[in-house]
């Protein structure tokens, strides 16, 4: 294992084989019993069905443990799994909710036992990982996404040296449709009109990050960290997923990485 600077703690350390997205997602996403049981992965390498995971030597043991302890272990138990979709099932036990226009708003979700801080930490760690390392070398020449001025404040937050960055909001949509509950993909830009918005998906959990001066109250109010009413929204994410998939595929084909053979459904 190589010894080099860990990108999170900035110390010279033995680096572990680190993942952009948790290894558990690949295990959960296998199509057991089919001719090719490997997960369908949509990334800048194109759309391929592969057992190959996006990983590299990036973080030290302590930082990997920090990621796991502060968010990843918890979040991986909340996503849609063979045993059920824990977070959606938890929300559905609540009567403190309101439905409108295809959205269901669940309030005071901490009282249901939902650990909003761990969900937020996990999501922030994935966005940040995507921005600070070239995960798809040698083809990739620049990061999947850039966090710009937010990159260092997020690193300090992940190191537990600073609070959640002001001027940012991390939102979670819990997906009610089958398709969104069964895919995962790496971060990409969210709204093309808004430069500082990003999104990624982990089997039923759709995370959206925004950064801007003077955050609109509806965004700030829905933030996992700062939202006062502790709301989580459940909705069909089918359109969002198709939109993000298209963006990643277009970017991949620009880079000449589109593999049309991978487009077949297993
Ligand atoms: Zn480290």
Bound molecules: zinc ion
Shape: globular
| Residue runs with pLDDT of under 50 for 5 or more positions | 259-266
- Please write the string of helix (H) and strand (E) elements: EEHEEEHEEHEEHHEHEEEHEH
Q: In angstroms, what separates the terminal alpha carbons? A: 36 Å
- Report the total helices: 8
Number of domains: 1
Largest sheet: 7 strands, mixed
Determine the strand fraction and express it as a percent band: 25-35%
**What structural category arises from helix and sheet content?**
alpha+beta
- Rounded to an integer, what's the Rg over CA atoms? 18 Å
Helix content: 25-40%
Cross-sheet strand order for the largest sheet:
8-9-14-10-13-12-11
Strand tally, please?
Answer: 14
Mean pLDDT comes to 89
Question: Which descriptors would you attach to this protein?
Answer:
single chain, 266 residues, alpha+beta, 30% helix, globular, disordered C terminus, binds zinc ion
């Amino acid at each position: 294992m190589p010894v080099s600077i860990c990108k999170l703690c900035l110390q010279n350390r033995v680096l572990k084989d680190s993942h952009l997205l948790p290894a558990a997602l690949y295990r959960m996403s296998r199509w057991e019993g089919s001719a090719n049981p490997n997960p369908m992965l949509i990334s800048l390498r194109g759309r391929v069905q592969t057992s190959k995971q996006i990983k590299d030597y990036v973080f030290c043991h302590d930082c990997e443990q920090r990621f796991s302890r502060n968010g990843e272990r918890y979040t991986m138990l909340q996503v849609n799994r063979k045993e059920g979709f824990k977070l959606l099932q938890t929300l559905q036990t609540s009567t403190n909710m309101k439905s409108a226009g295809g959205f269901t708003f669940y309030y005071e979700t901490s009282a249901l036992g939902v650990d909003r801080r761990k969900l937020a930490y996990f999501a922030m760690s994935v966005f940040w990982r995507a921005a600070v390392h070239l995960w798809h070398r040698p083809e990739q020449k620049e990061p999947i996404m850039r966090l710009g001025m937010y990159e260092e404040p997020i690193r300090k937050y992940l190191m537990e040296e600073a609070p959640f960055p002001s001027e940012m909001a991390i939102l979670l949509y819990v997906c009610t449709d089958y398709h969104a509950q069964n895919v995962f993909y790496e971060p990409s830009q969210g709204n093309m009109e808004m430069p500082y918005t990003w999104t990624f998906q982990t089997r039923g959990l759709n995370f959206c990050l925004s950064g801007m001066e003077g955050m609109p109250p509806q965004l700030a109010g829905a933030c996992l960290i700062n939202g006062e009413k502790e709301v989580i929204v459940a909705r069909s994410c089918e359109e969002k997923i198709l939109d993000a998939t298209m963006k990643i595929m277009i970017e991949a084909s620009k880079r000449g990485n589109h593999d049309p053979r991978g487009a077949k459904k297993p």
